[in-house]
Amino acid sequence: RLDDAMPYCIDAGRSTGEEAAAFLTFAREKIARDYAGPDPAHAPSIPKWDCLIITANDEQQKRIFELQLVDVPWRDYANKCFVVADPPGVRAGSGGASIWVLKQNREHKYFDSGDKVYLIHSGGQSKQAPHHSTGGKIFMTMPDGEAILRWKLNGYKSLPPLLRPGIFIDPADALVSLPDDMEPIGADTHLFLPMHRSNGFVAINQGVFFVNKRTGELERIVQKPQKKVLETEMSASPAAGAWFFTTAACFISASCVRRLDQLVVDNCPVEAERCIFGDFLRSVGSKGVKEPEGELDFDGLDLEEMRSRYKTHRWNLCLESCFRDAKIQLIDCDAQSFYHFGTIEEAGMHLNYLSRAVLKIPLLPLNSTWAYKVGYKERRATKKNEYSIVECCNLPSNPHTVVGHSAVVSNCYVGRNKNGQKINIPDEVVVYSTPVDREGRKGWVTVVVGKAEDLTKSYDRD
Question: Please, which domain of life does this record's source organism belong to (predicted)?
Protein backbone atom coordinates (compact mmCIF):
# COMPACT_ATOMS: atom_id res chain seq x y z
CA ARG A 1 0.00 0.00 0.00
CA LEU A 2 1.97 2.99 -1.29
CA ASP A 3 1.21 6.60 -2.00
CA ASP A 4 1.16 7.50 -5.70
CA ALA A 5 4.21 9.71 -5.29
CA MET A 6 5.88 8.24 -2.25
CA PRO A 7 8.86 10.31 -1.09
CA TYR A 8 12.02 9.10 0.58
CA CYS A 9 10.94 10.89 3.71
CA ILE A 10 7.73 12.43 4.96
CA ASP A 11 7.34 15.95 6.27
CA ALA A 12 6.39 15.63 9.93
CA GLY A 13 4.33 18.81 9.80
CA ARG A 14 2.05 17.87 6.91
CA SER A 15 -1.03 17.26 9.10
CA THR A 16 -3.22 19.73 10.94
CA GLY A 17 -3.48 19.51 14.71
CA GLU A 18 -6.90 17.87 14.53
CA GLU A 19 -5.74 15.34 11.93
CA ALA A 20 -2.66 14.48 13.98
CA ALA A 21 -4.73 14.04 17.15
CA ALA A 22 -7.26 11.85 15.35
CA PHE A 23 -4.50 9.68 13.87
CA LEU A 24 -2.79 9.33 17.25
CA THR A 25 -6.07 8.19 18.81
CA PHE A 26 -6.54 5.65 16.00
CA ALA A 27 -2.96 4.36 16.43
CA ARG A 28 -3.38 3.94 20.18
CA GLU A 29 -6.64 2.04 19.79
CA LYS A 30 -5.09 -0.17 17.10
CA ILE A 31 -2.12 -1.08 19.31
CA ALA A 32 -4.37 -1.92 22.24
CA ARG A 33 -6.58 -4.06 19.99
CA ASP A 34 -3.78 -5.82 18.09
CA TYR A 35 -1.32 -6.59 20.84
CA ALA A 36 -3.17 -6.57 24.14
CA GLY A 37 -6.46 -7.84 22.75
CA PRO A 38 -8.57 -10.79 23.93
CA ASP A 39 -7.01 -14.16 24.58
CA PRO A 40 -7.40 -16.38 21.46
CA ALA A 41 -8.90 -19.05 23.70
CA HIS A 42 -11.96 -16.82 23.98
CA ALA A 43 -11.90 -15.63 20.37
CA PRO A 44 -12.90 -17.22 17.05
CA SER A 45 -10.53 -19.83 15.67
CA ILE A 46 -7.53 -18.31 13.90
CA PRO A 47 -5.09 -19.86 11.41
CA LYS A 48 -1.82 -20.71 13.12
CA TRP A 49 1.81 -20.57 12.14
CA ASP A 50 3.08 -23.99 11.18
CA CYS A 51 6.17 -23.42 13.28
CA LEU A 52 7.47 -20.82 15.74
CA ILE A 53 11.24 -20.65 16.19
CA ILE A 54 13.06 -18.48 18.73
CA THR A 55 16.84 -18.17 18.62
CA ALA A 56 18.91 -18.01 21.81
CA ASN A 57 22.46 -16.87 22.49
CA ASP A 58 23.72 -20.24 23.74
CA GLU A 59 22.58 -23.56 25.19
CA GLN A 60 22.16 -22.11 28.68
CA GLN A 61 19.90 -19.32 27.46
CA LYS A 62 18.04 -21.83 25.30
CA ARG A 63 17.10 -23.78 28.43
CA ILE A 64 16.00 -20.58 30.18
CA PHE A 65 13.81 -19.71 27.18
CA GLU A 66 12.23 -23.17 27.20
CA LEU A 67 11.33 -22.78 30.87
CA GLN A 68 9.73 -19.39 30.27
CA LEU A 69 7.72 -20.65 27.30
CA VAL A 70 5.58 -22.60 29.76
CA ASP A 71 3.96 -19.31 30.78
CA VAL A 72 3.25 -18.12 27.21
CA PRO A 73 0.18 -19.52 25.37
CA TRP A 74 2.10 -20.07 22.13
CA ARG A 75 -0.03 -23.10 21.23
CA ASP A 76 -2.89 -20.71 20.51
CA TYR A 77 -0.82 -19.25 17.67
CA ALA A 78 1.53 -21.97 16.37
CA ASN A 79 1.42 -25.73 15.85
CA LYS A 80 5.04 -26.25 16.90
CA CYS A 81 7.64 -24.24 18.80
CA PHE A 82 11.41 -24.69 19.05
CA VAL A 83 14.27 -22.75 20.61
CA VAL A 84 17.51 -22.90 18.61
CA ALA A 85 20.82 -21.83 20.15
CA ASP A 86 23.18 -19.78 17.98
CA PRO A 87 26.42 -21.45 16.83
CA PRO A 88 28.85 -21.75 19.76
CA GLY A 89 31.46 -19.04 20.13
CA VAL A 90 30.04 -16.82 17.38
CA ARG A 91 28.06 -13.61 17.45
CA ALA A 92 25.92 -14.60 14.48
CA GLY A 93 23.57 -11.64 14.03
CA SER A 94 20.09 -12.00 12.57
CA GLY A 95 21.42 -13.22 9.22
CA GLY A 96 23.94 -15.71 10.55
CA ALA A 97 21.40 -17.07 13.03
CA SER A 98 18.88 -17.56 10.19
CA ILE A 99 21.39 -19.61 8.21
CA TRP A 100 22.19 -21.61 11.35
CA VAL A 101 18.49 -22.37 11.81
CA LEU A 102 18.35 -23.70 8.24
CA LYS A 103 21.38 -25.86 8.91
CA GLN A 104 19.89 -27.21 12.14
CA ASN A 105 16.59 -27.83 10.37
CA ARG A 106 18.28 -30.39 8.14
CA GLU A 107 19.05 -32.48 11.21
CA HIS A 108 16.08 -31.82 13.47
CA LYS A 109 13.26 -31.27 10.93
CA TYR A 110 11.69 -28.28 12.66
CA PHE A 111 9.66 -27.37 9.58
CA ASP A 112 9.03 -28.39 5.97
CA SER A 113 9.47 -26.35 2.79
CA GLY A 114 5.73 -25.76 2.49
CA ASP A 115 5.33 -24.39 6.03
CA LYS A 116 4.75 -20.85 7.20
CA VAL A 117 7.41 -20.18 9.81
CA TYR A 118 7.64 -17.34 12.32
CA LEU A 119 11.32 -16.84 13.24
CA ILE A 120 12.16 -14.47 16.12
CA HIS A 121 15.76 -13.46 16.69
CA SER A 122 16.48 -13.18 20.41
CA GLY A 123 20.02 -14.50 20.55
CA GLY A 124 21.91 -11.25 21.08
CA GLN A 125 23.92 -10.44 24.17
CA SER A 126 21.64 -7.50 25.11
CA LYS A 127 24.57 -5.23 25.96
CA GLN A 128 22.37 -2.15 25.60
CA ALA A 129 19.70 -3.69 27.84
CA PRO A 130 21.79 -5.88 30.16
CA HIS A 131 18.89 -6.85 32.44
CA HIS A 132 17.59 -8.98 29.55
CA SER A 133 20.92 -10.70 28.87
CA THR A 134 19.81 -13.84 30.72
CA GLY A 135 16.04 -14.04 30.30
CA GLY A 136 16.06 -12.59 26.79
CA LYS A 137 14.32 -9.55 25.33
CA ILE A 138 11.60 -11.78 23.89
CA PHE A 139 10.34 -12.39 27.45
CA MET A 140 10.47 -8.74 28.49
CA THR A 141 7.46 -7.86 30.63
CA MET A 142 4.87 -5.55 29.08
CA PRO A 143 2.63 -3.15 31.07
CA ASP A 144 -0.18 -5.72 31.38
CA GLY A 145 2.18 -8.31 32.88
CA GLU A 146 2.45 -10.41 29.70
CA ALA A 147 5.70 -11.18 27.90
CA ILE A 148 6.39 -9.24 24.70
CA LEU A 149 6.34 -12.63 22.95
CA ARG A 150 2.63 -12.95 23.68
CA TRP A 151 2.04 -9.41 22.35
CA LYS A 152 3.88 -10.29 19.17
CA LEU A 153 1.95 -13.51 18.64
CA ASN A 154 -1.32 -11.70 19.22
CA GLY A 155 -0.34 -8.81 16.95
CA TYR A 156 0.51 -11.15 14.06
CA LYS A 157 -2.40 -13.55 14.53
CA SER A 158 -4.02 -12.48 11.23
CA LEU A 159 -0.79 -12.71 9.23
CA PRO A 160 -0.36 -16.46 8.42
CA PRO A 161 -3.24 -16.69 5.89
CA LEU A 162 -1.91 -13.57 4.11
CA LEU A 163 1.55 -15.03 3.48
CA ARG A 164 2.92 -17.65 1.13
CA PRO A 165 4.96 -20.56 2.52
CA GLY A 166 8.26 -19.18 3.79
CA ILE A 167 9.82 -17.54 6.83
CA PHE A 168 8.70 -14.33 8.52
CA ILE A 169 11.76 -12.94 10.33
CA ASP A 170 11.21 -10.60 13.26
CA PRO A 171 13.50 -8.95 15.85
CA ALA A 172 12.74 -9.79 19.48
CA ASP A 173 13.06 -6.23 20.74
CA ALA A 174 10.44 -4.48 18.60
CA LEU A 175 6.68 -4.34 18.15
CA VAL A 176 5.45 -3.91 14.59
CA SER A 177 1.90 -2.96 13.61
CA LEU A 178 0.60 -3.89 10.15
CA PRO A 179 -2.34 -2.20 8.35
CA ASP A 180 -5.82 -3.46 9.19
CA ASP A 181 -6.72 -3.63 5.49
CA MET A 182 -3.65 -5.61 4.46
CA GLU A 183 -4.38 -8.04 1.62
CA PRO A 184 -2.65 -11.36 0.85
CA ILE A 185 0.80 -10.88 -0.66
CA GLY A 186 1.25 -11.56 -4.36
CA ALA A 187 1.48 -15.15 -5.54
CA ASP A 188 4.88 -14.38 -7.10
CA THR A 189 6.28 -12.30 -4.21
CA HIS A 190 9.66 -13.42 -2.90
CA LEU A 191 10.35 -10.61 -0.41
CA PHE A 192 7.65 -8.87 1.59
CA LEU A 193 9.01 -5.80 3.37
CA PRO A 194 6.89 -3.74 5.81
CA MET A 195 8.03 -0.10 6.00
CA HIS A 196 7.51 2.13 9.03
CA ARG A 197 7.47 5.92 9.10
CA SER A 198 10.04 6.78 11.76
CA ASN A 199 11.95 9.83 12.89
CA GLY A 200 15.62 10.49 12.22
CA PHE A 201 16.82 8.94 15.48
CA VAL A 202 15.20 5.61 14.61
CA ALA A 203 16.43 5.86 11.00
CA ILE A 204 20.13 6.17 11.83
CA ASN A 205 19.89 3.33 14.36
CA GLN A 206 17.86 0.90 12.24
CA GLY A 207 17.73 0.68 8.45
CA VAL A 208 16.19 2.90 5.79
CA PHE A 209 14.38 1.98 2.57
CA PHE A 210 15.40 4.18 -0.37
CA VAL A 211 12.30 4.23 -2.58
CA ASN A 212 11.94 5.89 -6.00
CA LYS A 213 9.74 8.96 -5.62
CA ARG A 214 8.14 8.51 -9.03
CA THR A 215 7.64 4.75 -9.36
CA GLY A 216 7.43 3.65 -5.72
CA GLU A 217 9.98 0.89 -6.40
CA LEU A 218 12.72 -0.05 -3.98
CA GLU A 219 16.15 1.28 -4.93
CA ARG A 220 18.19 -0.05 -2.01
CA ILE A 221 18.28 -0.66 1.73
CA VAL A 222 20.86 1.08 3.91
CA GLN A 223 21.48 -0.36 7.37
CA LYS A 224 22.17 2.27 10.06
CA PRO A 225 22.88 5.06 7.57
CA GLN A 226 25.04 7.96 8.61
CA LYS A 227 23.34 11.29 9.11
CA LYS A 228 25.30 12.68 6.16
CA VAL A 229 23.85 10.01 3.84
CA LEU A 230 20.30 10.97 4.76
CA GLU A 231 21.06 14.66 4.30
CA THR A 232 22.82 14.34 0.93
CA GLU A 233 20.91 11.51 -0.74
CA MET A 234 17.47 12.18 0.70
CA SER A 235 17.72 15.95 1.01
CA ALA A 236 16.34 15.66 4.52
CA SER A 237 17.94 16.21 7.90
CA PRO A 238 17.11 13.76 10.71
CA ALA A 239 17.23 16.73 13.08
CA ALA A 240 14.69 18.75 11.07
CA GLY A 241 11.64 16.63 11.92
CA ALA A 242 11.55 14.52 8.74
CA TRP A 243 10.23 10.98 8.75
CA PHE A 244 11.87 8.04 6.98
CA PHE A 245 10.76 4.58 5.86
CA THR A 246 12.58 2.23 8.24
CA THR A 247 13.11 -1.53 8.51
CA ALA A 248 11.99 -4.04 11.14
CA ALA A 249 10.64 -7.43 10.04
CA CYS A 250 10.69 -9.15 6.64
CA PHE A 251 9.24 -12.19 4.89
CA ILE A 252 11.30 -14.50 2.65
CA SER A 253 9.39 -16.92 0.43
CA ALA A 254 10.02 -20.68 0.42
CA SER A 255 11.74 -20.52 -2.99
CA CYS A 256 14.33 -18.02 -1.68
CA VAL A 257 14.71 -20.04 1.51
CA ARG A 258 15.52 -23.11 -0.60
CA ARG A 259 18.20 -21.16 -2.47
CA LEU A 260 19.67 -19.97 0.83
CA ASP A 261 19.73 -23.57 2.01
CA GLN A 262 21.40 -24.78 -1.18
CA LEU A 263 23.93 -21.98 -1.74
CA VAL A 264 24.74 -20.46 1.64
CA VAL A 265 24.40 -23.17 4.29
CA ASP A 266 27.13 -25.39 2.83
CA ASN A 267 29.36 -22.74 1.25
CA CYS A 268 29.33 -20.03 3.92
CA PRO A 269 30.15 -21.08 7.50
CA VAL A 270 28.65 -18.87 10.21
CA GLU A 271 31.88 -17.41 11.60
CA ALA A 272 31.02 -13.72 11.84
CA GLU A 273 28.04 -11.47 12.44
CA ARG A 274 25.66 -11.13 9.49
CA CYS A 275 22.60 -8.90 9.37
CA ILE A 276 19.37 -9.56 7.46
CA PHE A 277 19.03 -6.04 6.07
CA GLY A 278 22.69 -4.99 6.11
CA ASP A 279 24.09 -8.16 4.51
CA PHE A 280 21.38 -10.45 3.17
CA LEU A 281 19.38 -7.75 1.39
CA ARG A 282 22.20 -5.32 0.55
CA SER A 283 21.97 -6.21 -3.13
CA VAL A 284 18.20 -5.97 -3.60
CA GLY A 285 16.59 -3.03 -5.35
CA SER A 286 17.46 -1.22 -8.56
CA LYS A 287 20.51 0.40 -6.91
CA GLY A 288 21.45 -2.36 -4.48
CA VAL A 289 25.11 -2.82 -3.61
CA LYS A 290 26.63 -5.52 -5.81
CA GLU A 291 29.86 -7.36 -5.17
CA PRO A 292 32.63 -6.19 -7.58
CA GLU A 293 33.51 -8.51 -10.43
CA GLY A 294 37.01 -9.76 -11.12
CA GLU A 295 39.87 -10.40 -8.73
CA LEU A 296 39.75 -9.08 -5.20
CA ASP A 297 42.06 -6.27 -4.14
CA PHE A 298 44.20 -7.52 -1.25
CA ASP A 299 46.77 -4.72 -1.33
CA GLY A 300 47.88 -3.67 2.14
CA LEU A 301 46.06 -6.50 3.92
CA ASP A 302 47.66 -9.06 6.20
CA LEU A 303 46.82 -12.76 5.97
CA GLU A 304 43.90 -12.65 8.43
CA GLU A 305 42.41 -9.61 6.71
CA MET A 306 42.72 -11.34 3.34
CA ARG A 307 40.90 -14.40 4.66
CA SER A 308 38.15 -12.26 6.14
CA ARG A 309 37.76 -10.29 2.91
CA TYR A 310 37.52 -13.50 0.87
CA LYS A 311 34.91 -15.02 3.20
CA THR A 312 32.82 -11.85 3.06
CA HIS A 313 33.13 -11.83 -0.74
CA ARG A 314 31.93 -15.43 -0.89
CA TRP A 315 28.99 -14.68 1.39
CA ASN A 316 27.95 -11.67 -0.69
CA LEU A 317 28.13 -13.57 -3.99
CA CYS A 318 25.97 -16.40 -2.65
CA LEU A 319 23.43 -13.99 -1.17
CA GLU A 320 23.26 -11.99 -4.40
CA SER A 321 22.53 -15.19 -6.28
CA CYS A 322 19.71 -16.05 -3.86
CA PHE A 323 17.93 -12.70 -4.24
CA ARG A 324 19.01 -11.64 -7.76
CA ASP A 325 15.59 -12.05 -9.39
CA ALA A 326 13.47 -11.70 -6.25
CA LYS A 327 10.19 -9.87 -6.69
CA ILE A 328 9.75 -7.37 -3.88
CA GLN A 329 6.51 -6.20 -2.33
CA LEU A 330 6.58 -3.15 -0.06
CA ILE A 331 3.85 -2.04 2.32
CA ASP A 332 3.56 1.34 4.01
CA CYS A 333 2.61 0.73 7.64
CA ASP A 334 2.37 4.47 8.37
CA ALA A 335 3.58 6.22 11.53
CA GLN A 336 3.15 4.86 15.06
CA SER A 337 3.71 1.33 13.72
CA PHE A 338 7.16 0.57 15.15
CA TYR A 339 8.21 0.47 18.80
CA HIS A 340 11.80 -0.46 19.59
CA PHE A 341 12.88 -1.74 23.02
CA GLY A 342 16.53 -2.38 22.20
CA THR A 343 18.01 0.08 24.70
CA ILE A 344 17.12 0.94 28.28
CA GLU A 345 15.98 4.43 27.31
CA GLU A 346 13.78 3.18 24.46
CA ALA A 347 12.26 0.48 26.64
CA GLY A 348 11.42 2.95 29.40
CA MET A 349 9.94 5.47 26.98
CA HIS A 350 7.78 2.98 25.10
CA LEU A 351 6.67 1.01 28.15
CA ASN A 352 5.53 4.25 29.74
CA TYR A 353 3.71 5.27 26.54
CA LEU A 354 2.01 1.90 26.10
CA SER A 355 1.02 1.83 29.75
CA ARG A 356 -0.41 5.30 30.19
CA ALA A 357 -1.51 6.36 26.71
CA VAL A 358 -2.60 3.03 25.21
CA LEU A 359 -3.69 0.72 28.01
CA LYS A 360 -4.66 3.56 30.37
CA ILE A 361 -2.98 1.92 33.36
CA PRO A 362 -0.11 3.15 35.56
CA LEU A 363 3.31 1.62 35.01
CA LEU A 364 3.46 -0.23 38.33
CA PRO A 365 5.90 -3.02 39.24
CA LEU A 366 5.33 -5.94 36.87
CA ASN A 367 4.97 -9.52 38.08
CA SER A 368 6.54 -8.48 41.37
CA THR A 369 5.85 -8.79 45.07
CA TRP A 370 7.02 -5.85 47.12
CA ALA A 371 6.07 -2.79 49.15
CA TYR A 372 7.28 0.36 47.48
CA LYS A 373 7.42 3.98 48.46
CA VAL A 374 4.22 5.81 47.51
CA GLY A 375 6.16 8.67 46.00
CA TYR A 376 7.41 6.37 43.27
CA LYS A 377 3.89 5.85 41.99
CA GLU A 378 2.50 9.34 42.43
CA ARG A 379 5.30 11.60 41.31
CA ARG A 380 4.74 13.15 37.91
CA ALA A 381 7.89 12.83 35.88
CA THR A 382 9.06 15.96 34.12
CA LYS A 383 10.87 13.94 31.47
CA LYS A 384 9.86 10.80 29.62
CA ASN A 385 12.82 8.80 30.89
CA GLU A 386 12.23 9.46 34.59
CA TYR A 387 9.83 6.54 34.99
CA SER A 388 11.42 3.48 36.55
CA ILE A 389 10.89 -0.12 35.48
CA VAL A 390 10.51 -2.92 38.02
CA GLU A 391 9.86 -6.44 36.75
CA CYS A 392 9.88 -9.97 38.15
CA CYS A 393 11.11 -9.00 41.62
CA ASN A 394 10.49 -10.04 45.21
CA LEU A 395 11.72 -7.27 47.50
CA PRO A 396 11.40 -6.79 51.29
CA SER A 397 8.20 -5.24 52.60
CA ASN A 398 9.21 -4.42 56.16
CA PRO A 399 10.39 -1.77 55.81
CA HIS A 400 9.63 -0.85 52.22
CA THR A 401 12.08 -0.65 49.33
CA VAL A 402 12.70 2.70 47.68
CA VAL A 403 13.39 2.70 43.95
CA GLY A 404 14.93 5.82 42.48
CA HIS A 405 13.80 7.55 39.34
CA SER A 406 14.84 6.36 35.88
CA ALA A 407 16.02 3.07 37.37
CA VAL A 408 15.60 -0.51 36.15
CA VAL A 409 15.23 -3.39 38.62
CA SER A 410 14.80 -6.83 37.09
CA ASN A 411 14.75 -10.43 38.38
CA CYS A 412 15.83 -9.53 41.90
CA TYR A 413 14.90 -11.58 44.96
CA VAL A 414 15.70 -10.39 48.45
CA GLY A 415 14.79 -12.56 51.42
CA ARG A 416 13.99 -11.38 54.90
CA ASN A 417 15.35 -7.93 55.66
CA LYS A 418 17.08 -8.85 58.94
CA ASN A 419 18.64 -5.48 59.77
CA GLY A 420 15.32 -3.68 59.51
CA GLN A 421 16.69 -0.95 57.26
CA LYS A 422 14.95 0.04 54.08
CA ILE A 423 16.69 -0.70 50.80
CA ASN A 424 17.42 2.34 48.66
CA ILE A 425 18.01 1.80 44.95
CA PRO A 426 19.53 4.99 43.50
CA ASP A 427 18.42 6.96 40.46
CA GLU A 428 19.79 6.10 37.01
CA VAL A 429 20.95 2.54 37.72
CA VAL A 430 20.23 -0.93 36.35
CA VAL A 431 19.97 -3.73 38.93
CA TYR A 432 19.47 -7.33 37.84
CA SER A 433 20.35 -10.88 38.85
CA THR A 434 21.94 -13.44 36.59
CA PRO A 435 22.96 -17.10 37.10
CA VAL A 436 26.65 -17.99 37.10
CA ASP A 437 28.51 -21.26 36.77
CA ARG A 438 32.23 -21.09 37.47
CA GLU A 439 34.37 -24.16 38.05
CA GLY A 440 31.34 -26.22 38.96
CA ARG A 441 30.01 -23.70 41.47
CA LYS A 442 26.54 -22.47 40.55
CA GLY A 443 24.69 -19.53 41.98
CA TRP A 444 23.31 -16.07 41.35
CA VAL A 445 25.02 -12.71 41.11
CA THR A 446 23.30 -9.35 41.40
CA VAL A 447 24.72 -6.76 39.02
CA VAL A 448 24.47 -3.00 39.52
CA VAL A 449 25.55 -0.69 36.71
CA GLY A 450 24.91 2.94 35.89
CA LYS A 451 22.56 3.57 32.97
CA ALA A 452 25.20 5.83 31.43
CA GLU A 453 27.80 3.05 31.47
CA ASP A 454 28.85 1.89 28.01
CA LEU A 455 28.47 -1.88 28.27
CA THR A 456 29.45 -2.36 24.64
CA LYS A 457 33.06 -1.43 25.49
CA SER A 458 35.69 -4.05 26.14
CA TYR A 459 37.58 -3.89 29.42
CA ASP A 460 40.76 -5.60 30.53
CA ARG A 461 40.28 -8.06 33.37
CA ASP A 462 42.98 -6.21 35.30
Answer: Eukaryota
Q: Based on the number of CB atoms within 10 Å of its own CB, is 400 exposed (0-12), middle (13-18) or buried (19 or more)?
A: middle
φ and ψ of 207, to 5 deg: -145, 155
* β-sheet with 408-410: strand ranges across: 389-391, 408-410, 429-438, 441-450
- pTM assigned to the model: 0.85
Q: What dihedral angle (degrees, nearest 10) is formed by the CA atoms of 455, 125, 306, 102?
A: -170
The amino acid sitting at 78 is A
Cβ atoms 432, 131 nearer than 8 A: yes
Report pLDDT digits (tens) over 83-139. Answer: 999 988 888 888 899 999 999 999 999 999 999 999 999 976 677 888 888 888 999
Whether the pLDDT of residue 143 is over 90: the answer is no
Question: What DSSP string runs through 142-161?
Answer: PTTS-BHHHHHHHHTTTSGG
Buried b (16+ CB within 10 A) or exposed e, 319-354: bbebbeebebebbbbbbbbbbbbbbbebbbbbbbbb
Calculate ∠ Cα 195-198-200, nearest 5°: 130
Residues 36, 181, 45, 188: what is their CA dihedral angle, to the nearest 10 degrees? -120
How would you class 395 by CB atoms within 10 Å of its CB: exposed for 0-12, middle for 13-18, buried for 19 or more?
A: buried
H or E element that contains 67: helix 59-68
The pLDDT tens digits of the residues spanning 10-29 come to: 333 334 456 556 655 666 66
Number of neighbouring beta carbons within 10 Å of residue 237: 13
Cα gap 333→164, rounded to integer Å: 19
The kind and range of the H/E element at 370 are none
Q: CA-CA distance, 51 to 258, in Å (whole number)?
A: 17
